[in-house]
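Appendix C reproduces, verbatim, an entry submitted by the partner laboratory led by Prof. M.T., so that reviewers can inspect both the input and the predicted structure.
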Amino acid sequence: MPSQAGRRKPSPESIQEPRCPLCGGSGELLHRDLTDRLYGVAGRWRLSRCANRDCGLAWLDPAPKELAAAYESYYTHAIRDDGSWRRRLYERLRSGYLATRFGYGGRNTEVWEKFGGNLLACLPHRCAAFDAGVMWLPAQPGGKLLEIGCGNGDLLERMAALGWQVQGIEPDSKSADIALARGLPVIVGELGDLDELDEQKFGPGAFDAIIMSHVIEHVADPVALLRACRRILKTDGRLVTLTPNLEALGRRWFGRDWLHLDPPRHLHLFTPESMLIACDQAGFVNASCQTTIRDANWTLGASLALRLKGRYRMGELSWLTRTAGLALLYLEWFYIWFDDRTGEELVVVARKG
């Protein structure tokens, strides 16, 4: 289990980045003296934001040189084992929705599963979770899929069960070991080293789809990673990225207590504009960006816990805080009708032209 924030770990060495690493604009101070209140890495961190409003990227300044200490007790080092009847029912209803919405399962899906799944998806937060469960990818039986930063393999395992030929890459050996123990094809490697991996597996045009869920914010050079992704995608292949949204309503509400600030692990925080700039610099065409309320109840509930208690342990929320998080999620969902840039996360879909 993650360690308490009070048990401090050594502070990683840091480097300064006075200008926006994406567009070169000047940096403005957004927050100072941020601390790690999730896993207890020692140090104080400053978050700067690009003054160019057509970009708006935020970055840790200074940023850690080496992040291994920041991930010693990360949440991907655990695996959820929930075989309850409620979970089994939820999985079947999700399968019914995915069959209708994205073409997974086809004739193997029961009518009641489709009806119940689509009924459950009338709840906006459930619909968002279902969509994110396949990273908004339509069914492509036999298609080759790479997950970068696959963690303990939860999503990779699900995509394999849905007919994808999967491959994972994960820089954290503890998380990768869990995925390997589940029989998943995972390579332990740095996310920025795609160009140096096995040419047969990671050569030009190797994959139909690449997915990254909460990965790009951890990477020192996001554009270089996106370029590497483009190189190994097939023509018209699709990259889907999920990352925290700096313009989120939760960030406006909670400020320095917003869960997704997560210093020192989150090196960059993107706006819709800066995410599209990064895709353009990497050579992608027809990139689109939207926001989602997926898991916003947990994000907002945890942010509330940080504000009230000054710390938060991943995955542990009181009933009252969970309820408050769900209420805030629906307030955010309502607000998005008037400003669609304010969901907690960005969903970016980019194609290789």
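Residues 1-8 have pLDDT under 50 and may be disordered. Additional entries are available on request from the coordinating office.
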